[in-house]
Fold Recombination protein RecR.
Amino acid sequence: MEFSSKLLENAVYEMSQLPGIGKRTALRLVLHLLKQPEERTELLAHAVLKLRGEVNFCKNCYNISDTEVCEICANPKRDETMVCVVEDIRDVMAIENTSQYNGLYHVLGGKISPMEGVGPQDLNIVPLIKKVKDGTIKELILALSSTMEGDTTNFYIYKQLEGQDVTTSTIARGISVGDELEYADEVTLGRSIINRVPFESSIKAN
């Protein structure tokens, strides 16, 4: 792709580094920004810089937050004896949109994936195990995507919790094998949470 401007080329390159954005889409977005009033571009740039510089991760659940403790963890109406384990913030948003879950969350920050060099030590697993050992949690819902990496991570956490007084469940397989939670429709995801099954049963099923 030939560019008449080095500034345009640099902007397109940086935009194309975003996931799912190819060079042509990046060019279209950059040209769109050039057509907008200058203040609109400045507002976008300011929002991104402010996000990058000031965003926090909740000290309890590792969800993205504007404060030290996120709104979900700070809500006294949430059931603190139930924790849903998810991969990232997108899964929290997907489950919250179902309005079928009233417990807390624990964001791992990824899944165990030897092929990508991601091990248990790279995820927020140790703090999760510590939470369970503290004794407040009565049920742990493993809500990772039904992929090989998700199942591996679920099983690793399950083995780490052997001997602990906690019920371990997993979302029902209304979610197709290989699907990511964030792409599931709200009704299907909501039913999968309501109809969750003991983790031991999911192992036997596999």
Summary: The chain has a mean pLDDT of 87. The two ends are 48 Å apart (CA to CA). The CA atoms of residues 61 and 106 lie 4 Å apart. The longest strand covers residues 79-86.
